[in-house]
Design brief:
50% of the residues lie in helices and 21% in strands. With 218 residues, the protein is α+β, with helices and mostly antiparallel strands. It has a four-stranded mixed beta sheet with strand order 4-9-8-6, with helices on both faces. Strands 2-1-3 form a three-stranded antiparallel beta sheet, with helices on one face. Strands 5-7 form a two-stranded antiparallel sheet.
Length: 218
């Protein structure tokens, strides 16, 4: 389907461009969201008659978005989630979770779900860059800090790899267990038992030797 863009659409074009898109994309997204018009003769005349106003409205919205972007650009949100020992979440972080976290304090620019560009849900601990598109021509990047606790979130904020730290702590615990006093006591006890067994066997050997000497003399 041929359409006339009413605003800049990523990977398609800018205001006034006539482009060809799949019918489903046009009918399900571009047309109902007033991002485009069907490129027929009547709509082309309507667009040209209103082009100046359309461009002026877009410019005003762009400037508004740029002014508002400062309150969230580079912002880091903390999302506390349970995870396995390998750092995989029991569940995932979705667009809705990010929107709720961004809007929680009521001080930042209000972000809607349609503004969050998340290619796939977040399913592990860590710090992830997320793009927020406030306007077709204005995008900012925020960070989603996904952690098991506020303390771990602080570590991740400082660049600590929590998953690697978890692995190193597990290895240290295993090494400590192998060298624990209980293990040493067990080793000493085993050695003592071996020594006692040797002592018990020694007299029997001596008695046998005495008998052999007596028999030899006879």
């Amino acid at each position: 389907m041929d359409i006339i863009l009413l605003e800049r659409v990523e990977n398609l074009g800018s205001i006034g461009d006539v482009v060809t898109v799949k019918n489903g994309y046009a009918r399900n997204f571009l047309l109902p969201n007033k991002k485009a018009l069907r490129a027929n003769a009547a709509n082309k005349k309507v667009f040209e008659a209103n082009r100046q106003q359309i461009e002026a409205d877009n410019e005003a919205k762009r400037k508004e978005a740029e002014a508002a972007s400062g309150s969230i650009d580079g912002k880091q949100i903390v999302l506390i989630r349970a995870s396995s020992a390998s750092g995989q979440l029991y569940g995932s972080v979705s667009v809705r979770d990010i929107v709720e976290a961004l809007n929680a304090d009521g001080k930042s620019t209000v972000v809607e779900k349609s503004m969050v560009i998340l290619e796939k849900p977040i399913k592990s601990l860590g710090v992830f860059d997320v793009r927020i598109r406030l306007h077709p021509e204005v995008s900012v990047t925020i960070q989603a800090n996904v952690a098991r606790s506020d303390d771990e979130a602080d570590l991740q904020k400082d660049g600590v790899d929590v998953i690697q730290q978890m692995f190193e702590e597990d290895q240290a615990e295993l090494a400590a267990a192998a060298l624990s006093p209980d293990s040493e006591d067990e080793g000493e006890e085993t050695a003592e038992k071996a020594g006692d067994a040797a002592d018990d066997a020694a007299p029997e050997a001596t008695e046998t030797d005495d008998q052999d000497d007596t028999e030899s003399k006879e």
